[in-house]
Each structure stands twice: as C-alpha cells, then as structure tokens.
Amino acid sequence: MEKDLIEYIAKSLVDDPSAVSVTETEGERGPVLELRVAQGDIGKVIGKYGRIAKALRTVLSASASKDGRRYSLEILD
Fold it and tell me: How many domains is the chain partitioned into structurally?
C-alpha cells in the first residue's frame, strides 16, 4: 500500500509519469522504498530545499505507522 501511495504522488508531480518506478528493498534499518524518476524530473520530486522529499517521507511515515511499520524513502537518480 505504501509503495502504491508514493508511486501515485510521484506520478502526479513529474512531467514523465511513465518513468516513475518504486521498488521495495530490505535495508539494515528495515524496509526501504526506492523511488526512481526521469533525470529531468528529479528536481520536481526533491523540491526546493528538499521540501517535497520531506513531505513524501512524512506521508509515508504516517501511512506506515497505521500498520505499525517503519519505512525509509530513498530518491535515486
């Protein structure tokens, strides 16, 4: 569910929604969602001073805490 939520939000932010992909991996501190977007859209997902990235992480944290889980979000280029 969290994977779909991040993918939906990212697709609505970028110019090329077909290039958005979210994969779930296991990190040393728990599950990690890796967000990949087109090279030209990376700034739109990170935002000025990282505000959009922080908002994505906040939404992810709120969604995951309902189930008692903890996710990390990594934005990859």
Answer: 1
